[in-house]
Amino acid sequence: MLLWYYLFAINLLAFVLYWHDKRSAIYHARRTPEYVLLLSGFFGGTLGAFLAQRILRHKNRKASFQFKFWLLTLLQIGLIIWPPMALRLALRFLLTHSV
């Protein structure tokens, strides 16, 4: 249950960070650094970041940012999928090759 609260909060934070950066861009104010936007997505706010890009039409045309965003998203997916797979393979190996 705690995981769902975290995911909700981090996605909301990611969306708000993109909104704030978009607003700052419009009013020529101090911008949110790109690495902050990217890290908000990497630490669980990918959906919020993606929705903000589409709904607010912010950072969706900048090719270098999109490349980094999707690269981090793939890395995030790999980190979610790979460890359980590696653990299963290790357990299978240990169970079948035990003395």
Give an overview of the whole structure:
This protein is an all-alpha fold. It has one domain. It has 3 helices and no strands. The longest helix is centred in the C-terminal third of the chain and has 34 residues.
How would you sum up this structure in a few lines?
The chain has 99 residues and is mainly α. The chain has helices at 2-26, 34-55, 63-96.
Short descriptors:
99 residues; mainly alpha; 3 helices; 0% strand; elongated
Poorly predicted residue ranges? none
Distance between the termini: 40 Å
Count of the separate structural domains: 1
Strand content: under 5%
Strand runs, count: 0
Average pLDDT, all residues: 90
Helical fraction? over 70%
Cα radius of gyration in angstroms: 18 Å
Structural class: mainly alpha
Q: Give a short account of the largest sheet.
A: none
Return the string of H and E elements: HHH
> Looking at the structure, what is the overall shape?
elongated
Total of helices: 3
Topology readout:
Elements: H1 2-26, H2 34-55, H3 63-96
Helix pairs in contact: 1-2, 2-3
